[in-house]
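Records of this kind hold a single protein each, on a pair of labelled lines. Below, a sample record shows both lines together.
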Amino acid sequence: MSINNLDQLYRSVIMDHYKNPRNKGVLDESDITVDMNNPTCGDVIHLTLKMEDGIVQNAKFEGEGCSISMASASMMTQMVKGKTAEEAVKVAHIFSDMMLGKEVDESVDLGDIEALSGVAKFPARIKCATLAWKAMEKGVGNDSDQ
C-alpha cells in the first residue's frame, strides 16, 4: 500500500471515530471519574471507568475538542476494556512513545490506534491525542482513591 493510500486510510479511521464515537456517554455506576483539559487548545474530557478485580470492565467518555482528541478518546475506551489496570497503562505508554515518534513494540496490536501515528509529525497536536490516555492513566493509577 502506498504512503498516500495509508495516510488516507488512517484519516478515514480517525474521522470514523470522530463522527461515530465508540463508548460516548457517562457510566452511571462508575468507580472512577476523571476530568481533564488541554488549556492550549480547549479540549476537554470527562472519563468514567468501571473496574472490577483490577480489570477495566467498561469505559465511557464525554467531551469537546478536535477530531484528533475525540477520536483518540473513542479508540482508547475500546482498547482498555477487558484489560487490567497495568495492561491499560502499558498500552498508554506505548501510545505515548508512538506520539513522540519513538519505536514501539510491534508485537502489541494497536488496532485503530495506529491510525494516530501520523500525529507525531505535528507536535502541537500531540497533547490533543494523549488527553484521554492521560485521563485513563490518572484514573487507573488512583482507582483505590476514587
